[in-house]
TrEMBL record, chain A:
Belongs to the peptidase T1B family. SUPFAM superfamilies: N-terminal nucleophile aminohydrolases (Ntn hydrolases). Its main location: cytoplasm. The keyword Nucleus applies. This is Proteasome subunit beta. GO terms for biological process: proteolysis involved in protein catabolic process. One of its GO terms (cellular component) is proteasome core complex, beta-subunit complex. It holds the Pfam family Proteasome. It is found in: Cytoplasm; Nucleus. It comes from Papaver nudicaule. PROSITE patterns: PROTEASOME_BETA_1 (PS00854), PROTEASOME_BETA_2 (PS51476). The keyword Nucleus applies. Non-catalytic component of the proteasome. InterPro entries: Ntn_hydrolases_N, Proteasome_alpha, Proteasome_beta4, Proteasome_bsu_CS, Proteasome_sua/b, Proteasome_suB-type.
From TrEMBL, chain B:
This is Proteasome subunit alpha type. It comes from the Eukaryota. It is found in: Cytoplasm; Nucleus. SMART domains: Proteasome_A_N. The keyword Cytoplasm applies. Signal peptide: none annotated. It comes from Papaver nudicaule (Iceland poppy). GO terms for cellular component: cytoplasm; nucleus; proteasome core complex, alpha-subunit complex. Gene3D superfamilies: Glutamine Phosphoribosylpyrophosphate, subunit 1, domain 1. Belongs to the peptidase T1A family. Residues 242-278 are annotated as: Disordered.
Length: 239, 278
């Protein structure tokens, strides 16, 4: 039988992303004395297989912003294409105006919400951080377009495991060294308890002077803690 | 008998390299009642002359708010001016929707100029018969632009368009060097003086002109008649005073304005673009 032209028009037989394939886990971000710091590991999981170990998940956008992503890596790459084009056209004006972190965050909110309305979401949680005209900015957007600003932010598992530590120990005027130590403490907890986390991470720093993204490095681990002994105690399976 | 062969449509060149229809559109700007604009580092003031067509009608609106940080004054075909204002408003609101921040004035002006230029290159269109003074504030400071029907645009410290605008221009050219550091209230006074020049002897009253301001910590707004009348009265005091006493009177005038306007006559804070120079 001949197929009847669908009610939804040309988008009828378009296939949508129904679930993510290669994903990155938590991104952490916080404000400190001189600007904003973000941390993310470099893992890319293919389902639950740790398939890629060298994925940069925090990228600079223009002079004033950083964007970090957890979730579908290919969708993040597409988002970066949008942002790089946006910054290119912004620079082509060649005037004294430029897009700051607030503008980037709002733009991403529109993109994410627009795609979820097409039932074809970009499968990411994004963190946007930056400094412009002396003002620090940190915000996040989810795959549904839910967005908010805060002094410290974590996506995915980090929202459960890192945020409580950040709430207890973070302050807006902490030094760079203290802020890095705090992020490493959070990343270590995530490494211990989040199975998708890997021990290879980058910390990105943005200040009025510009962006620096660290070389990948590892944290020192200690698995001899009693909490790690006999992991199935109290949670025994039926076999 | 010898009618111009090259002015029947916009896209036909004359052998001398002119586009007559575009030039005619530029003439339409000169027919409209005058509009002037001037700026300091922190503020831009627009002012226009209101002319009604008959004793029985009201005058047409010549100054439009585009967004909180941008406004325009028009001279020429008011109907075209309204259409362009509507376009400018929608560009601004779309930008705010996407970026939650105000659109840069210079960028808006380029978009407007591009829109006007298209009309000079399409056989089935006519150029807009309106000139716009675009005043606004953005992160690079206070700006005043003039957009004309030909699709050209220019940035100015002070400018006047419309009928008898030459006398206002002469006034502004004589005084523009001091505008940069003028206070908001002084800009308004200079705007009213420039408007007065275009009236050629006719008495300046608050009902015959419209004045609007935009500046640091001051959204674009049109001043109400009462406020304008107070400014005009200050000008008259200044004019009636003998020349040697003018300096003293000016200071007194400023104090009075401060009291009347409930605004401090202090030096305004520097615009973002000027902060680096301090």
């Amino acid at each position: 039988m001949e197929r009847i032209e669908g009610l939804l028009g040309p988008e009828d037989n378009k296939s949508h992303t129904l679930s993510p394939y290669v994903t990155g886990t938590s991104v952490l971000g916080l404000k400190y004395k001189d600007g904003v710091l973000m941390a993310a590991d470099m893992g890319g999981s293919y389902g639950s297989t740790l398939r890629y170990k060298n994925v940069e998940r925090v990228k600079p956008v223009g002079k004033h912003s950083l964007v970090g992503a957890s979730g579908e890596i290919s969708d993040f790459q597409e988002i970066m294409r949008y942002l790089d084009e946006l910054i290119l056209y912004d620079n082509m004006w060649d005037d004294d105006n430029s897009l700051g972190p607030k503008e980037i965050h709002n733009y991403l909110t529109r993109v994410m919400y627009n795609r979820r309305n097409k039932f074809d979401p970009l499968w990411n949680s994004l963190v946007v951080g930056g400094v412009k005209n002396g003002k620090k900015y940190l915000g996040t957007v989810s795959m549904l377009g839910v967005h908010y600003e805060d002094d410290h932010i974590a996506t995915g598992f980090g929202n459960h495991l890192a945020r409580p530590i950040l709430r207890a120990e973070h302050s807006n005027d902490m030094s760079y060294e203290d802020a890095v130590k705090l992020l490493e403490k959070c990343m270590l907890v995530l490494l211990y308890r989040d199975r998708s986390a890997i021990n290879k991470l980058q910390i990105s720093n943005i200040t009025e002077e510009g962006v620096t993204i660290s070389q990948p490095y590892s944290l020192k681990t200690f698995w001899g803690l009693s909490a790690f002994k006999d992991p199935t105690k109290g949670a025994q399976g039926s076999w | 008998m010898f009618r111009n062969q090259y002015d029947t449509d916009v896209t036909t060149w004359s052998p001398a390299g002119r586009l007559f229809q575009v030039e005619y559109a530029m003439e339409a700007v000169k027919q409209g009642s005058a509009a002037i604009g001037l700026r300091s580092k922190t503020h831009v003031v627009l002012a226009s002359v209101n002319k009604s067509n008959s004793e029985l009608s009201s005058h047409q609106k010549k100054i439009f708010k585009i967004d909180n940080h941008i406004g325009v004054a028009i001279a020429g075909l008011t109907a075209d001016g309204r259409v362009l204002s509507k376009y400018l408003r929608s560009e601004c609101i779309n930008y705010s929707f996407t970026y939650e921040s105000p659109l840069a004035v210079g960028r808006l002006v380029v978009q407007l100029a591009d829109k006007a230029q298209v009309c000079t290159q399409r056989s089935w269109k006519r150029p807009y018969g309106v000139g716009l003074l675009v005043a606004g504030l953005d992160e690079s400071g206070a700006h005043l632009y003039y957009n004309c029907p030909s699709g050209n645009y220019f940035e100015y410290q002070a400018f006047a368009i419309g009928s008898r605008s030459q006398s206002a221009k002469t006034y502004l050219e004589r005084k523009f060097e001091s505008f940069s550091n003028s206070s908001r209230d002084d800009l308004i006074k200079d705007a009213l003086f420039a408007i007065k020049e275009t009236l050629q002897g006719e008495k300046l009253t608050s009902s015959i002109c419209t004045v609007a301001v935009v500046g640091l910590e001051e959204d674009f707004h049109i001043l109400d008649q009462k406020t304008i009348q107070e400014f005009i009265e200050l000008l008259e005091i200044r004019e009636e005073a003998p020349v040697q006493e003018e300096a003293g009177q000016e200071e007194a005038g400023q104090e009075e304005a401060g009291a009347a306007m409930q605004e401090d006559a202090e030096v305004p804070p520097p615009a973002p673009m000027d902060i680096g120079d301090l």
